[in-house]
Amino acid sequence: MEGELERLNSSSEKRYFPESLDSSDGDEEGSLACEDLELNPFDGLPYSSRYYKLLKEREDLPIWKEKYSFMENLLQNQIVIVSGDAKCGKSSQVPQWCAEYCLSIHYQHGGVVCTQVHKQTAVQLALRVADEMDVNIGHEVGYVIPFENCCSSETILRYCTDDMLQREMMSNPFLGSYGVIILDDIHERSIATDVLLGLLKDVLLARPELKLIVNSSPHLISKLSSYYGNVPLIEVKNKHPVEVVYLSGAQKESFESILRLIFEIHHSGEKGDIVVFLACEQDIEKAYEIVCQEGSNLNPDLGELVVVPLYPKEKCALFKPPDETEKRGQVYQRRVVLTASFGESLIWSNTVKFVIDVGVERRKVYNPRIRANSLVMQPISQSQAETRKQILASSSSGKLFCLYSEEFASKDMRPFKPAEMQEANLTSLVLFMKRVDIAGLGHCDFMNRPAPESLMQALEDLDYLAALDNDGNLSEFGIIMSEFPLDPQLSKSILASCEFDCVDEMLTVAAMVTAPSCFSHLPRGAEEAALTCWKTFLHPEGDHFTLINIYKAYQDATLNSTSEHCVEKWCHDYFLNCSALRMADVIRAELLEIIRRIELPYAEPAFGSKENSVNIKKALLSGHFMQIARDVDGSGNYLMLTHKQVAQLHPLSTYSITKKMPEWVLFHKFSISENNYIRITSEISPELFMQLVPQYYFSNLPPSESKEILQQVMDHLSTISAMKKEQKMCEQCPETTEQRCTIQ
């Protein structure tokens, strides 16, 4: 082991260690001469001047002084835990050090992969690290996120979202192409990260040469240490203290307090950007509108107030320092970032001097009994509050305004952020676990075990979808369903579309509902103009068909445009989200590739015919028969078939716009909140539903008026079926009778 460490620290690798660790006494001029000729070992080309500039920035990071300790522990141990606050540099530097380790042993065990919870951070870290390593993105350093792969056979360090590494385990369970696996953002407690933590325990036993690095915030270290046992820990300390101001009376009128604080900070003349943590996306939209409106009336001598809403769905929506070219020749700009709980990992700027935290969040909690999410307002955890404080860690004079009391923080906030596995729908997880052939979930050592009720509901749903055989293992249907990076219900609808000759249309629907909403956020006063534009896409059969119309119109605009700018203008003119439609296009292409790879039948598109419309509804029902609602009073109050929740159609639904409310609808999304909207709905007939619903699912439905109506429909269909059968027999009867008489 000592020999390995010496080799890493010798001649050509010497630059990887801080100068304080370099024991050589060579003269400075000689060093500079060598630097001029120094080659990058990752691509064999001379280093650029930018490499040395960035190297100095890297050496100023808090984690840099721990490099020697980390490399020593990496050589001597299979698992290393790195504990550090946000902005300490662990997400960018640790993967580079691991790449140096793999290079030193000539990649004999594979390259490096580093997981991220958010696709935005995976992309931006890859870009940043490629720049720091002085190599090309997509070659030596790359990234893999859902529906986008920017890697090649040359890639030695890849950043990827945790769900993509999890999916890779379906075809490569022991992850043999990697010598070092880095799990980052552990404190986020996403389902995929928790699954990887558990499964990699077995992989490490099977592959003694594999190294696992776990990056986490300090608050989770005790839990990780007990989970992995006696493993080395690298701790990175914070650089600057942060002033915390508790405003205990502000929580009741948090919105007014936030606005007041923003403008007070701006009027104070203190330089620095502001980050505001709100409860949910709706609050971001509301605050954005108000701050923009009020900010336009401010004294221009104080500088420009630029409002930046930070949403979770856009790929590159990170808040970073402005480029030097942006700063030159401009008046002072103070940026106000509006975000929510998902934003802690997306703030990358060291220009932030003020953070305002409301201390509450709207969480999505899944209820397996009613198969629906509830949007619940509750306090954030103490660990989340600490993470928000760490955003100011690189600032020498940062100030955190907490719109709650110290007592609230100590008594009402939980110590840790809840694991997503304990609050989410686990159907996709169970399908994955079955696919990697783990006999029962007890064989995976989860840090927090999933709720038994959620597991039972997931198994029941997979059974209804015909994904399981009689022994509880994956059926042939289930194996094919797991190939699609989609919700199992949507995967089942795609498989059913092969039978009903509407694959082309169903792929479009799947892509459009998986991508972010294709409708743009509307500025005040634009609602009427937007509705007029959107009406041109409406389809009488429902929202799923409207989405097909929008996608086809986008394709036509793309084909008929001479440049990307023309497509963007077309989207802008129709109040459509161009980036969402581009994403839908990418998703659809990947789904089509999967269809071709596993050689499923693909019929020619026939959108617009009556038969095709019925077939699309059959395909949708085959996967979404658990998402049916009925208008119980003729006024748009829809009662769910599976439980007694009442909901309304979303205002942007085809039927809301045309004021024509169908009695029975299939819906794609529903969350219990102050507005119980069902989203993306299409009309179905009870007869079609009864033809396609699994009989044992229907028999398990709770008693209701809707179920009685459906039972009558089924009885009627059974009577018609019996009559047709009898008629068919009667058509054969005279000939048979005549033959019998002759014989007698």
Concise overview:
One of its GO terms (molecular function) is helicase activity. With 744 residues, the protein is of the alpha/beta class.
Provide keyphrases for this structure.
globular, eight-stranded mixed sheet, 21 strands, alpha/beta, 744 residues
Q: In percent, how much strand structure appears in the residues?
A: 15-25%
Class per helix and strand makeup: alpha/beta
- Indicate the mean pLDDT: 86
Major sheet characteristics: 8 strands, mixed
Which strand order does the major sheet show?
Answer: 4-3-5-2-6-7-1-8
- Distance, first to last CA: 100 Å
Query: Can you tell me the residue ranges where pLDDT is under 50 for at least 5 consecutive residues?
Result: 9-35, 315-319, 324-329, 736-744
**Radius of gyration from CA coordinates:** 29 Å
How helix-rich are the residues, as a percent range? 40-55%
Number of helices: 28
- Note the quaternary state here: single chain
Explain what this protein looks like in three dimensions.
Helix content is 44%, strand content 16%. The longest helix has 39 residues, at 705-743. By secondary structure, it is of the alpha/beta class. Residues 9-35, 315-319, 324-329 and 736-744 have low confidence and may be disordered. Strand 11 (304-309), helix 12 (324-327) and strand 12 (333-339) form a beta-alpha-beta unit. The N and C termini lie far apart (100 Å). The protein has an eight-stranded mixed β-sheet with strand order 4-3-5-2-6-7-1-8, with helices on both faces. Strands 9-16-13-10-12-11 form a six-stranded parallel β-sheet, sandwiched between helices. Strands 17-18-19-21-20 form a five-stranded mixed barrel. The protein has 28 helices and 21 strands.
